Amino acid sequence: MATPTSPAFLLLLLHVFLFLLCSSKKGHTVSANRTTKNHFHNVHANSLLPSSVCDQSNKVLNRASSLKVVSKYGPCSVTGDPKTFPSAAEIVLQDELRVKSIRTRLSMASRTTGALDEKKTTIPSTRYGGYTVAVGLGTPKKDFSLIFDTGSDLTWTQCEPCLGGCFPQKDEKFDPTKSTSYKNLSCLSEPCKSIAKESIQRCSSGTCLYGVQYGSGYTVGFLATETLTITPSDVFENFVIGCGEKNDGKFSGEAGLLGLGRSSIALPSQTSSKYKNLFSYCLPASSSSTGHLSFGGEVSNAAKFTPITTKFKEFYGLDVAGISVGGRKLAIDASVFRTGGTVIDSGTTLTYLPSTAYSALSSAFQEMMKKYTLTNGTSGIQPCYDFSKHANDPITIPKISIFFEGGVEVDIDVSGIMLAVNGLEEVCLAFRDNRNDKDIAIFGNLQQKTYEVVYDVAKGMVGFAPGGC
């Protein structure tokens, strides 16, 4: 996987792409859980393992402006090859690279001089822990499977003729010559000026080119406008996209990326006239189930909201107020969470905590899991347990809740508490230690499962409603 590199790398890619462009003379472009004593989950050990059969949710069908959400690495995926699905251990390893790229981007953003170009090229890795949706592009419309990402802004797809080379994808690549609504943007356009804040930007005969470096690859191509179709009734003309002609990375058969970040080129801003800068998603309890990504509409009455902090301009930051295990609030000073701050991210798998908080959580968890056999973890996650002798038996797992500013409690679904790293022989606590109290904490997608996570960007709030999918 690629890691953040210097801006010279993207500049080189842009120059190579320009050479190819000129030489080619192209001008376009878990099962339901029972609880015991209210503070523990009582589940069968086998329910912690992923299923090989897709279980479609029908909740997406009952919502307007909604898209079906599918795990990239589950039986519901139409683009992935099960033979190439990563192991849980590989997911953990690559998760660390995404976290590193997020921290690098924030570190660059905090500098006032000498860091602008490096900041522009560093976007979170999208290889692991991702979820996909299908959207329509072009006229006539063609559907493409894109990874949706709250940590990225630009929506882009691979484009023919792939002058500089493209990574393998399951769908046919987008061909701008076959769309009557496709238009390249000029270097004088406002979107081109905006993308210059997010990526390396250059011009070719007055046409705007972009280059974005990810933790797991890159995309270089034309900045353009195209018709985006969310649903048959939700069609957006002149939607700014990246038409990637030179792309690389481990996108696992997907066509590109759907940017749900905070900038003016991200989807929430571009569709604000209809959706009012409001979107939500529900990630299913299992990779063998489906969820939904919804835009606009009514907010669930069950949603409890916490403010988006002003600490991070690039990401959705939240203020964590505390943690409880088995119904017991841990003695962690609030300053531990305020030092580095916390980001909620749709693409990071695990939750990363300040060392002080992680130590308290891990100790309390182990104290309540004493009757189970500890085992040495092979992926860097601790503590881990051997449940192989309990395959057909119920096991009791303490509930974990995260508290956010404003009295919001997120009672983590059991599917987000433990991760089967190596079958039932190695089932681990799905939280990571930052190894210090200074780095940013990340609220990962495992811990968001089954909640309707509502991003009311216009009001500066994020909400959580239980039982979303």
Walk me through the structure.
The protein is an alpha+beta fold. It folds into two domains: 7-32 and 55-295, Cathepsin D, subunit A, domain 1 (Beta Barrel), CATH 2.40.70; 40-51 and 302-465, Acid Proteases (Cathepsin D, subunit A, domain 1). The chain is 17% helix and 33% strand. It has helices at residues 7-24, 88-110, 116-121, 190-195, 267-270, 272-275, 335-340, 355-368, and strands spanning 34-36, 40-44, 66-71, 131-137, 142-149, 156-158, 183-184, 200-204, 207-214, 217-231, 234-249, 256-259, 278-282, 290-295, 304-307, 317-318, 320-325, 328-329, 342-344, 351-353, 373-375, 384-386, 394-398, 400-404, 408-411, 418-420, 427-429, 431-433, 441-443, 452-456, 461-465.
Radius of gyration (Å): 22 Å
Strand order of the largest sheet: 4-5-12-6-11-10
CATH architecture assignment of the largest domain: Beta Barrel
How many domains? The number is 2
What is the count of DSSP helices, taking H or I runs of 4+ residues? Answer: 8
Keywords: Aspartyl protease, Disulfide bond, Hydrolase, Protease, Signal
Pfam families: TAXi_C (PF14541), TAXi_N (PF14543)
GO molecular function: aspartic-type endopeptidase activity
Active site: 149, 345
